[in-house]
Amino acid sequence: MALTREEVLACLRGIDAPSGTNIVDAGLVRALQVEDTSVRFVMEVESPAPYGEAKSKAEDALKKLGASAVSIVMTAHSTPKPPPDLGTGRKAEPSGPEKIPGIDRIIAVASGKGGVGKSTVASNLACALAAEGRRVGLLDADVYGPSQPRMLGVSGRPQSPDGKIILPLRNHGVTMMSIGLMTNEDQAVVWRGPMLMGALQQMLSQVQWGALDVLIVDLPPGTGDVQMTLAQKAHLDGAIIVSTPQDIALLDARKGIDMFNQMKTPILGMIENMSTHICSSCGHEEHVFGHGGVTSEANKLGIPLLAEIPLHLDIRLAADGGAPIVVSKPDSAQAKGFRTVAKALIDMGSA
Length: 351
Ligand SMILES: Nc1ncnc2c1ncn2[C@@H]1O[C@H](COP(=O)(O)OP(=O)(O)OP(=O)(O)O)[C@@H](O)[C@H]1O
Fold this sequence. Notes:
Helix content: 25-40%
CATH architecture of the largest domain: 3-Layer(aba) Sandwich
Bound molecules: adenosine-5'-triphosphate
Number of domains: 2
Radius of gyration: 20 Å
Oligomer: single chain
């Protein structure tokens, strides 16, 4: 049976940190994501060794509670190649949402569920906006599955000449930074500063973005701490919600919309991804995940439907190959939806 965030937190309150306080109240549980029976979170610790026992107890307790998959990532010092000093390793200081100097607008690309194509949409939108002449940044804030380095075809570690400012990477006209570029490839998150949330804030303020018309932020799926932190720390000009048409994805998308409404972030629109499938050999059209679900949901909620993006092999191959479809086949029917959204955002004054 699906677990709720409250059940998971209550369960984790039964696990003590070495200080004697339980790991939730000790502030160690961060970026908690509960999806059906899968639970993921980050334990923010200075050094992992003393917390190993608490981690395994938490895993056992969550499995007993009914979790089918548990992923707990400890933030810790990376030994072989320390990333640049991102500051003092302090907690994000409490402050309200702020405009980031040099960045005119910030748009979050979000989804309720993982795997619906949020990162594919974010990278194609960023490249399509760049092709329209906009100055575009892309921040990959998906701490669990950073995929933008692969999608934009960039690799290598960002340089930090003075140990403070981080120089982002650039490809296809897009300036990009990803948490994935600051970690070792086989580790989900290893951060020198102990605070993941502080790290997100620092990515916004210490990365040398230059002057941008728009920064696109690729969020982790769901409605967790990263989303909240972003909305609290940065002035978000709008959110785009990506969903596949089937009910279960829409149900989660609705939660995302609710969260943005509560945070007073305007929803610019929804995108239905994997809308129709056209067979690349025979041209037959079929609706793998149903069709029109997002359109009717958007109508119901009074939110614009920005595009219906087909499920097409070329979109996946382009994303995996490091040159999104709007770059590799800009005139194709598969690229059209993304390019239309980019133009619409510019027309609305949102990008
Ligand atoms: N319209 C599409 N046609 C074909 N393949 C697609 C399409 N959209 C996304 N994909 C593929 O589906 C997979 C998941 O997409 P993506 O990583 O963008 O999802 P996501 O929502 O960002 O997932 P997560 O949040 O879990 O990282 C990728 O392999 C991507 O290439």
